[in-house]
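ok here's NfeD-like partner-binding protein:
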Amino acid sequence: MDLLWAQWWVWGVAAVALAVGEVLLPSYVLLGFGIGAGVVALLLLVGVSFGGSLPALLLAFALMSLIAWLGLRRWLGVMHGQVKTFDHDIND
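and the structure:
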């Protein structure tokens, strides 16, 4: 039997848990990690073994999470040049 961390369903459960955490704590950080865990789960499901190495698996997770987070930031983040300015005081 393979090690627990190399099972696709473990990463799938982690992806769902991180997505639920994103609903509870909206910050777009957990969603990036959830997408990364989901991609790793899909890769394990289709047969990518990462050489049976935990560091290689964690590196793939980190890279997928970073790519997902950067994509979410670009898609949902503040647009360039968008600045909130105030031209009056609320006490006036």
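+1. The chain has a mean pLDDT of 85.
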